[in-house]
Amino acid sequence: MRSLKALAGALTGWSERNGEPRRQVGVLPLRTLPGGEMQVMLITSRETRRWVVPKGWPMKGLKNYEAAAREAYEEAGLIGRVGRRALGSYFYQKRLKSRDTVLCQVQVFRLEVRKQLKTWPEQHERDCRWFSVPDAAEAVTEAGLAALIRAAGADGAKAKAKVKAAAHAGSAAKDAVAKDASAREASAKRPAAKASTSRESGGKGSAAKGPAGRAP
């Protein structure tokens, strides 16, 4: 924790004398395209118009991941499956209405987006856009958030590779079964053909010997 605070201080100018950072919760909205590419949705902040993720203060009566999902709905109209374990956290300086700034630590949860609603509470207060993982990491100004985005992209690439490998293995197994079935069928046909030939030969031989066996 001390090293994390030291990093926050280096990035934001925060120090122990300023007190503990204020806690917030947020989501990293993700979707996977049919081709396997992962994308990240970012929204603009209302005060500075920089690219950020949906986030806000914890809500009474809701668990942190539930509050984070609620922020995703209110700020971007996103509906999906939210992870219950945080991906990590990052620090940033929040500008207050008084023009003062306060250091915040945002606990970030993964949100697998199913759909975006046609209307939502803050629809006309923010812009939102889908980015590729590299572009999203470049668009945000907080180094900690950029690191979380890149980590999520790396995990997505690993998952994609596993699915591809499993599909390849399944296809290979299917081909092996088909080849085995074809070999069994060919093997079953060969003895039947020999038996048929043998019966035909035996019949011809009996017919030839019949006249020779009768008395003149």
Automatic annotation (TrEMBL):
Region Disordered, residue ranges: 170-216
Basic and acidic residues biased stretches: 176-188
GO molecular function: metal ion binding; pyrophosphatase activity
Assigned GO CC terms: cytoplasm
Cofactor(s) this protein requires: Mg(2+)
Keyword vocabulary terms for this entry: Hydrolase, Magnesium, Metal-binding
Composition bias type Low complexity, residue spans: 206-216
Cross-referenced InterPro entries: DDP-like_NUDIX, NUDIX_hydrolase-like_dom_sf, NUDIX_hydrolase_dom
CDD domains: NUDIX_DIPP2_like_Nudt4
Domain of life according to the entry: Bacteria
SUPFAM superfamilies, per database record: Nudix (SSF55811)
Location of the Nudix hydrolase domain: 20-153
PANTHER family: DIPHOSPHOINOSITOL POLYPHOSPHATE PHOSPHOHYDROLASE, DIPHOSPHOINOSITOL-POLYPHOSPHATE DIPHOSPHATASE
Protein name: NUDIX hydrolase
Naturally occurring in which organism (per UniProt): Methylobacterium aquaticum
